[in-house]
Amino acid sequence: MVVNMPMAPSPDSSLFDRFARFYDGDYRHYDEDIDLIGQYADEHGDPILELGCGTGRVLLPLARAGHRLTGVDISPALLERARARLQQQRLSAQVELLQADLRTFDLPTKGYGFAFCTSSTLMHLTTAQEQLAALHNMARHLRPGGRLLLDLFNPDLPRLFAVEGLMELADRWLDEQTGAEVLKWSVRRLDLAEQLQETLFLYEEIHADGRIERTACPFTLRFLWRNEAELMLQAAGLAVEEVMGDCEGTPYASDSEHLILVAAKPETR
Predict the structure, then answer these.
(1) Mean pLDDT computed over 19-25
(2) What φ, ψ does residue 250 adopt, rounded to 5°?
(3) Closest by Cα among 227, 178, 207 to 24
(4) Which among 1, 56, 89, 105 could bridge 100 via Cys, Cβ 3.0 to 4.6 Å?
(5) Given phi > 0 = left and psi -120 to 50 = alpha, else beta, which region is 113?
(6) Which distant-in-sequence residues (6+ apart) come within 8 Å of 129 by Cβ?
(7) pLDDT tens, position by position, 151-198
(8) Percentage with pLDDT > 70 across the chain
């Protein structure tokens, strides 16, 4: 079920809609976070909340494992694909989909045992105030003792500067529906003072008849340093319990690929 609710205007919605038809191809090999998220889901129990659920990459395996979930995303096009996949696998009864802004969504249930926001989704909010508002909103939907897992990319400065201004062929695959070969190009520019990385994904579809279609998907990420992320979670009323550098649970280090934080909502007394 897709539920619509009023939300603040955001330029991100149309950009993510444009990205929707490439999403599953882009993430076709990415599943490294599913086991980690599944472990926390099993430990802390239903219902489970995903913030920025996309087309259901993580929702589906959790639903297949028997969990009851709510997925929130700002993009109608991404949610439509998630709904179709859930119907195809006969999992619709276990998952509610909500079109909403992470800063302002309001669900009737405020008793989620586990919530997660993976794939650096929080970073699509491009000011500290917006990110903190989203974290506050996530926290208020947790039950006392519930956990929030936040998976971000680690702002490794040598890596960020290494890709600055370069146009890279990031990936290529065959689209099974259209038969087109898809080339994904990426260009990134860094604003270190504002902690922003401006990114352009350019998807080039080469069809069998020689036609070439190009779709530009620009977006901006605001990256967080470890201490800043911990302080934001604390300001949102959560107690940070773990900080990991990958989905295997390795302790966070300066050269880690991920910055994964797990925080708990305090038990009421």
Answers:
(1) 94
(2) -65, 135
(3) 178
(4) 105
(5) alpha
(6) none
(7) 999 999 998 999 999 999 999 999 988 999 999 999 999 999 999 999
(8) 95
